[in-house]
């Protein structure tokens, strides 16, 4: 098929935007769009033609939880620079206070931060169960270095993304099949320690499979409040600080 | 329309620069519209909210990639949520077919049929409305089913009770006619 033929191009773009181009054909079209600028432009034009149909739809307010999930996914609820002190104080707070719902506009408010921690605490039970499961499996394999501490990094829907085991010498990380990495980004692991101003990098996380990270010399010397995962450009943080914190996880002593 | 575009463009540029408050504001101003789109396509609230959530995460990450050639800011955002919803329809195909069997026709109502609350008498007809109005009623219906409800050619066949070839060519010719009309 000659995709540069205006008629074919328009017909395909129109059906792509309409939504009737499905499966293989749709994926092939997406690839072609990356290669052929005129196909891309034709698609944009059809988006402009057809999306006017949506003006006829009456807006429907989504549930407030949607915004909370979005801001959690994007790590808005954890500020980068002063993360350590906030985690330290808020973990204490959250154990005594009820969860609070944050207003939509209050993106980086302390209350939404607490909500996040509260939700973290609620899903800790899941993490604990996972840890137990892994520990039980571990007991059968005697050769491997014994894990001393462990954490499960969970996504927005409490799905386990990485399993982290800390042994005497290293940090063993496994990514799970729940995790879909962005090709043009890396994911960096940090520890947040009490009384230490900035998070300390522990290295880049594997995008798939398993990886052994060297244990930072400070790891056993500081009081670790939490681990954090940030989204970074390839090869990690350009300035030694997390660019965008995606998740935090508690470290459990075994 | 231009005022809305200016406001949204301001918010989107600030979002591209990493302004979280602007992004929250953008969400506040557009989420109702985008949710209506995903709800119409996916039918189920929890799926529609999932699509919405993923669309906004993508909007945050891709805000720098918006450019005028892609149309109005709202058009660009609607595209993102629509493509996400289409992806999800593939994975939740079973649900769609179940609904056909259950005869839940309510979700297939035509928002432009004039009976719903969507169309007030004060709404001025756009060029698109006029051009859609020039199509054969069944052609228009097929396009609406595909567009609003995310139906495949096969699903449109099930709904209109016509041969697949007919549905395909109606949609194709309908779109061609629409393009000629809009270009005038």
TrEMBL record, chain A:
Residues 125-243 form the Anti-sigma K factor RskA C-terminal domain. Keywords: DNA-directed RNA polymerase, Transcription. GO terms for cellular component: DNA-directed RNA polymerase complex. InterPro entries: RskA_C. This is DNA-directed RNA polymerase sigma-70 factor. It comes from Shewanella litoralis.
UniProtKB/TrEMBL annotation, chain B:
Keywords: Sigma factor, Transcription, Transcription regulation. Residues 127-178 form the RNA polymerase sigma factor 70 region 4 type domain. Residues 26-93 form the RNA polymerase sigma-70 region domain. CDD domains: Sigma70_r4. The keyword Transcription applies. SUPFAM superfamilies: Sigma2 domain of RNA polymerase sigma factors (SSF88946), Sigma3 and sigma4 domains of RNA polymerase sigma factors (SSF88659). Pfam families: Sigma70_r2, Sigma70_r4_2. Belongs to the sigma-70 factor family. ECF subfamily. This is RNA polymerase sigma factor. The gene is rpoE.
């Amino acid at each position: 098929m000659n995709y540069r033929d205006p008629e074919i191009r328009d017909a395909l773009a129109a059906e792509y935007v309409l939504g009737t181009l499905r499966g293989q054909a749709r994926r092939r079209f997406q690839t072609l769009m990356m290669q052929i600028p005129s196909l891309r432009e034709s698609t944009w034009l059809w988006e402009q033609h057809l999306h006017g149909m949506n003006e006829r739809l009456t807006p429907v307010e989504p549930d407030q939880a949607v915004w909370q999930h979005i801001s959690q996914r994007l790590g808005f609820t954890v500020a980068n620079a002063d993360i350590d002190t906030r985690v330290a104080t808020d973990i204490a707070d959250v154990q005594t206070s009820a969860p609070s719902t944050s207003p939509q506009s209050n993106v980086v408010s302390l209350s939404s931060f607490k909500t996040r921690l509260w939700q973290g605490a609620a899903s800790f039970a899941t993490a604990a169960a996972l840890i137990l499961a892994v520990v039980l499996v571990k007991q059968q394999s005697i050769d491997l270095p014994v894990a001393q501490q462990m954490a499960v990094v969970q996504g927005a829907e409490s799905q386990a993304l990485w399993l982290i085991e800390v042994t005497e010498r290293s940090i063993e990380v496994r990514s799970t099949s729940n995790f879909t990495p962005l090709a043009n980004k890396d994911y960096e692991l940090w520890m947040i320690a009490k009384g230490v101003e900035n998070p300390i990098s522990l290295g880049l996380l594997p995008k798939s499979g398993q990886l052994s990270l060297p244990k930072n010399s400070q790891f056993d010397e500081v009081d670790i409040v939490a681990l954090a995962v940030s989204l970074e450009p390839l090869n990690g943080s350009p300035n030694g600080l997390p660019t965008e914190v995606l998740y935090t996880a508690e470290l459990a002593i075994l | 329309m231009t005022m809305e575009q200016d406001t949204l463009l301001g918010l989107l540029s600030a979002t591209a620069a990493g302004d979280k408050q602007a992004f929250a504001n953008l969400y506040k101003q557009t989420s109702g519209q985008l949710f209506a789109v995903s709800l119409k396509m996916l039918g189920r609230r929890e799926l529609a909210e999932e699509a919405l959530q993923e669309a906004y995460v993508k909007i945050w990450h891709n805000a720098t990639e918006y450019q005028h050639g892609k149309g109005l800011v709202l058009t660009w955002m609607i595209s993102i949520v629509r493509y996400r919803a289409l992806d999800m329809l593939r994975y939740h195909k079973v649900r769609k077919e179940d609904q056909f069997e259950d005869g839940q026709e309510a979700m297939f109502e035509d928002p432009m049929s004039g009976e719903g609350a969507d169309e007030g008498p004060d709404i001025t007809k756009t060029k698109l409305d006029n051009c859609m109005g020039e199509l054969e009623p069944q052609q228009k219906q097929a396009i609406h089913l595909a567009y609003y409800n995310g139906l495949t050619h096969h699903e449109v066949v099930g709904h209109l009770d016509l041969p697949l070839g007919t549905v395909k060519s109606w949609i194709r010719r309908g779109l061609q006619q629409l393009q000629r009309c809009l270009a005038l």
